Amino acid sequence: MAIDERFLDELMNRLDMVDVVGRYCKLEKRGNRWWGCCPFHNEKTPSFTVDPEKKMFYCFGCKEGGGIISFVEKTEKLEFPDAVSLLARMVGMDVPTDEREKSIYKRRTRLLALNKEAARFFHSNLEKEISAPARDYMARRQISRKMVIRFGLGYAPDQWDGLIKAMVAKGFDKGELLDAGLAVKSEKGHIYDRFRNRLIFPIIDVSGNVLGFGGRVLDDSLPKYLNSPESYVYHKANHLFAMNLAKNSTAPQFILAEGYMDVLMLHQAGFDNAVASLGTALTPEQADLIKKRKGEVVVAYDSDEAGQKATERAIELLRARDIKIKILKMKGAKDPDEYIKKYGSDAFRLLLSGSENSSDYRLEKIRAKYDITDDEQKLAFLNEAITLVSTFKNSIEVEIYIGKLAEITGIRRETIEGEVKKSLKRQRRQNERREMRENTNPEKNAQPSFTRIRYQNVTLARAAEGILSLLAHNPELKGLVEERIKPEDLGEEALIHLYGEICAAIDNGIYPNPDTMTDKLTADERKLLAMILANTPDGSPKLLVLDYLGVVAMESAKSKAKVDAKGLEELIAMKRNDTRYGNGRNGSNE
Predict the structure, then answer these.
(1) Contacts of 248 (CB under 8 A, 6+ apart)
(2) What is d(CA 329, CA 489) in angstroms, rounded to the nearest whole number?
(3) Torsion of CA 472, 478, 484, 487, to 10 degrees
(4) What is the mean pLDDT of residues 215-226?
(5) What is the DSSP string of 447-504?
(6) DSSP label at 537?
(7) Please, what sign has the CA dihedral across residues 579, 583, 586, 590?
(8) How does residue 582 score in pLDDT terms, banded at 50, 70 and 90?
(9) Contacts for 14 with CB less than 8 Å, ≥ 6 apart
(10) Who wins on pLDDT, 192 or 355?
(11) Among 14-28, 113-127, 157-171, which stretch is predicted with the lowest mean pLDDT?
């Protein structure tokens, strides 16, 4: 959907970039810019910058960048028109387009309303006779009435179109039911309910919006659990089941369980800090969601092989965010629900207090692979364990686990300590070699690695980037630049295109910004422009642009000379092969 550039320019002038971005991450002012940890990748040292004057953001770590609209697109998972609509509402503006009624934002609003009505429909079914299978199942699983209400549980009747009919009567259409993932279309074009004869678990975000549903089968059908697909409102990687409830818990940590029933039964037993990932292993976005609210997690995944793999993944993600991790080992039960039913909530609370940290868990997993009474296997165990210990960042933790290895194996502490130091040196050397390879390949490093754009002449491209940045921030330089070079002198197709769009924006009195040019640039070009605008050279703009223009002229001349030389060689070769000029070695005619 095309949106008038002047409207976009006015919208960005009214918006406070720091205020918008500050809603998603903590920012601190340094000089003319604001800095914070990037919301798009994991980092401990802030490399994410916001320039309020230019209405631009840029991360020097992951290379993401753009304007306010780009930022909202990425954080809210919206398409461009929706992001514009959302920002326009912040400042009381109306988007001047006939297409706004068809925007994703309207669809998002409609789908959230639809999901809310669907949740009410499912919940109300529990009071009807048709829900006998669900009531029987809940009785067997000992789910209390209080939990039914707390989690908004419901029942999808064993009908092909029970929900469809109910929602159409509420004013929703079948297209919206398909968009929300509540209905499915068959190969023959028939539309029917996705959830049938299932206990329904609404998936609710921290703001109370119903995003989707999980359905537990009540007979022998497969799959056992059926979940809503990705939609305009539901992105499972970004949410945790029951976080809307657990966020209010006074417990110092979250309990990270594997499924809906585990979480529900934990809450019923008094552990209101339980959450679960949604039908998948923990994601970076979910780990970030945890980090925002708690500094500690107890991982209580199932004890089977899949649960252990998921635990390893969770440890990796949580440790990267400096979240304190403990691992729950449930002997005599495969999951929290079974453990609580067998031994009671007090026993589970005691288990929580004695849960082992993630380092103990990982070391024990390695130990379980070897018979350390055998010298060869003992050596293999030590090699793998030492590699693990050498990855620990905390020196005190390293000391503790050197002692544990000595105790387990009977090997002198000093010997193990020496091997850990050797492992650390090996890792350091590997890192140094990698850095050396990168440093000795400046051409590769100079490429815009965050896009698919590749420069043929890096020197020329870097000078062109400098010109574009200075030109965008200093429109008065346009005449000088146009006098000295032609667009094609910039060499790279993407930079030539950006140059033309920047000049056009200046002519229209609009600040060149990836957001105002969204319909004119590819996604890679928008990223490249964001990087160029974020890296403005320091110094006198006129003197700097003259220097860059000189480099462009010199590189263009070199390139032209190479082309001319190549053309001359081709002409000579052509003449040698042409009978009119003779094809002999001495050029003699026949």
Answers:
(1) 272
(2) 66
(3) 60
(4) 90
(5) S-TTSS---S-HHHHHHHHHHHHHHHH-GGGHHHHHHH--GGGG--HHHHHHHHHHHH
(6) P
(7) negative
(8) very low
(9) 91, 93
(10) 192
(11) 14-28
Q: How many CB atoms lie within 10 A of CB 1?
A: 16
What strands lie across the sheet with 296-299, from one edge to the other? 274-276, 254-257, 296-299, 324-327, 356-357
Label the pairing between strands 198-204 and 154-156.
antiparallel
Q: Report whether pLDDT(25) > 80.
A: yes
Q: Which amino acid is at 332?
A: G
Classify each residue of 126-138 as buried b or exposed e, where b means 16 or more C-beta atoms within 10 Å of its C-beta. Answer: beeeebebbbebb
Instruction: Indicate if the alpha-carbon torsion angle 294, 300, 306, 312 is positive or negative.
Output: positive
Q: In Å, what is the CA distance from 517 to each residue of 150, 268, 468, 538?
A: 47, 53, 15, 25
Spatial separation of the C-alpha atoms in residues 322 and 162, rounded to whole Å: 48
Strand order, beta sheet including 48-51: 28-30, 33-36, 48-51, 56-59, 65-67
- Residue 107: is its pLDDT beyond 60? yes
Confidence grade of residue 26 (pLDDT, cut at 50, 70, 90): confident
Q: What is the pLDDT of residue 150?
A: 97
User: How far is 8 from 6, CA to CA, in rounded Å?
Assistant: 5
Q: Report the chain's terminal Cα–Cα distance, integer Å.
A: 69
Contact 549, 484 (CB under 8 A): yes
Return phi, psi of residue 178, to 5°: -70, -45
Residue 122, both tokens: 């499912």
- The amino acid sitting at 335 is D
Helix (H, G, I), strand (E, B) or coil at 59: strand
Q: Is the peptide bond before 223 cis (omega within 30 degrees of 0)?
A: yes
Q: Which residue did the predictor score with more confidence, 153 or 366?
A: 153
CA-to-CA distance for 355 and 45, rounded, in angstroms?
31
- Rg of the chain's alpha carbons, rounded to an integer? 31
What's the Cα-to-Cα distance from 147 to each of 115, 272, 306, rounded to whole Å?
Answer: 20, 11, 28
pLDDT of residue 200: 98
**Does the structure show a pLDDT above 70 at 392?**
yes
Tokens standing for residue 156? 């999808």
Secondary structure of residue 30 in the 3-state scheme: strand
Largest CA distance in the chain: 108
Backbone angles phi, psi at 298, to 5 degrees: -105, 115
Does the pLDDT at position 251 exceed 80? yes
Please state the three-class secondary structure of 185-218 as a single string: ECCCCCEEECCCCEEEEEEECCCCCEEEEEEEEC
Q: Give me the torsion for CA of 551, 555, 558, 559, rounded to 10°.
A: -160
Which helix H or strand E contains 541, and what residues bound it?
Answer: helix 541-577
Sign of CA dihedral 486, 492, 498, 502: negative
Exposure on the CB side of residue 383, measured as CA atoms within 13 A: 8
Q: pLDDT higher for 293 or 447?
A: 293
